[in-house]
Batch of 3 targets.
Target 1
Amino acid sequence: MAFRIMLDANILLDFTLKRERGSVARQLIEWAVKGRVQAFITPSILQLTGYWLTAAYGAENAKELLLAILSDIQVIDIGHEIVVNALHSKMTNMEDALSYYTALHHKLDYFITRNRGLYEAAISVLPVCTPEEFLKYNV
C-alpha cells in the first residue's frame, strides 16, 4: 500500500521553479506519478503555488503547470472543523497549521515540508519530515 503524503507548498515550488532542491522534490513527484505514494495538497497550497508560478511564468503557463501537477496530486478539502482545530493549535504559521490539520483529518501518513518549525508542534500520529528524510527512510 502506498503512503499517503501531504506536500507543502515549498515542495511544489522547489519542483516547478527548479530551485536548488528541485531534484529531491522531483523524485517525490515521480513517486506520485508511479503510484509509489499518494500525494495530496490543500486549496491554500494550490493557491500559494499558483501565485508564485504566475509571477515566474505568466498565468497561462502557471495554469498548465498546475493542471499537470493535479493529474497526479489530489486536492483535499479543508472544512470548518479543520480550520477551527488548526486555529486552536500551537502552530504559529497559519498556512502550515491549516495544511497539517487537513492532513491529520484525512488520516495521511506523512507531512512533507522544509519548515523545521512545524516539527515542534506536530503530534506523533502525523509525522513531519523533509523530502530527503522521507525518501531516505522509505526507499
Note: The chain has a mean pLDDT of 92.
Target 2
Amino acid sequence: MLDQKIKDLISGGKNFACISTVDGKNIPHSTIVWIGYEGDFLVYNTEVHRKQFKNIKNNPNISVAIWDSANPYRYAEVVGNVSKTETGEVARKHIDELSNHYTGANYGMEIASERVKVYVNVVRQRIQG
C-alpha cells in the first residue's frame, strides 16, 4: 500500500521523480520524470522508443526517488516493479494530466513514438523529512 505521506508529496507540489531501471547487461539507467499515483500505484508516462521503457520490458524491477522541490531534504524512496502498462488514448490523456500538474497546460512537446502509461507496484517504501 502506497504511504499517504508519499501521495501527499506527489500531489503537494511540482515534485519530480528519478526512476532507475536496469538494462540487459545489468547497467543502471536513470531518468527524471513527472510522477503521479493512482490508488496504491505510482504512475508515470514515457514513450516506447525510450531506453527506460525497453529496460522495464526486459526487467520490470524499478526504483523511484521523489523529492520535495521546496525542501530537497524531504524525499521518498520506492522500490517496486512495473505491473502494467497502457498505450493509446489512456496514455495520451495521462501525459496531459501530468503536464497540467507540472506546467499548467496540456503536453505540448512532439511525440516521437507511442505514449505509455506505466504502473509501478510498490514493494518497499520510505519517506524522509
Note: The beta strands are 17-22, 28-33, 36-38, 41-47, 61-68, 71-86, 115-128.
Target 3
Amino acid sequence: MGWHGYLALWCAVLGVVALVGYGRSLAGMTREQRMVRVRGRIERVRVPRHGGSRRGGIAVVVSYREPSCGARVVVTNDGECGEMITAAWTGREIGVRYPRGRPHEYRFSDDPQAGGRGLGPPNAALVLMYAALVVAVSVDRGWPWALVGVCGPWALVGLWYLPGNVRDTRRRRERLASMVAVPGRIVAVLRDVGTDAEGGTSTTITPVVAFTTREGMDVVAHCGSGVAEPATSYGRELTVHYPADDPAGFVLDHAARERAVRSDVAVTVVFLAVVAAAAVVGLLLI
C-alpha cells in the first residue's frame, strides 16, 4: 500500500472519530455533558505564605448545594481541582462540576456557567484530517497549494473574527475607563523552581496582591504582570484598578493595559493582511 493508501486510512480513522464525537455530542453523551454542574461560593480564603509555591492556586473553602438532595457540601481546593483559583474573596461564586454519582471527583472553574459540549476531540480530528489533505495536495501539485490550503482558511477565519474583535476591543476600552482605583499591597511573593528536559532550572516569581474593594470585599490574587522587580516586591504598596462588577479582572499597570488594548485590532488586521496576501500569492502561482 502506497502513501496515498495510508493517507486514505488516516483520514478514514479520523473521520470515524469525528462522526462518533459529534454523534455523542448531539445525543448528550460526552463526558462534559454528563457532568453535574453547580454554583459554589467561597466561604474562606487563606493568604498564601510568603516564599511558598503558586501550585494549587489560592487556598479556599467552597460550599455548594447537592442538586439531588439539597444538602450543603463543603470542599477545598487541595490537590488537582480543575482550574487554579488565582483571585479569591469571601462570597465569590465559582463553578463546581463532577461526574454524576462521583462528587469526590469535583473540579473548579472561574466561570460559574462554564461548560462545554465535548467537541474538542472531534474538532481536533477534523483539523488533523484537513492538515493531512493539504500536505498530500501540496506534495502532488506543488507548494503553492500549501499557501492556499493553510492561509486561505486562516484569512476567512480572520475576516469572521475581525468585527467581533473590534466590538470586544471597544468594550474592553470602556471597561478600563470605568475601573475603580484602590490601594493594594503585595502580601507574598511565591517562588517555583522547575527543571527542563536538559536538566536546567528556572524560577517563576509570582507576587500576591491584597486589596479591599469599595464594597468592602477583601481580595487576594496572583499578579501575572504589572509588578516591577517582582522578586523584591514583598510589602510594596501599589494602586489596583478593578472593574466594579468583577474584582478578578483587576490590573496593576493601567496605562500598559490601555496600550495593549489599542494595539489589539491593529495586530489582528496585520495578521489578516499577511495571511490573505499569502493565499493570493498561492492562487496566482497555481
Note: Helices lie at 3-26, 120-141, 144-177, 254-285.
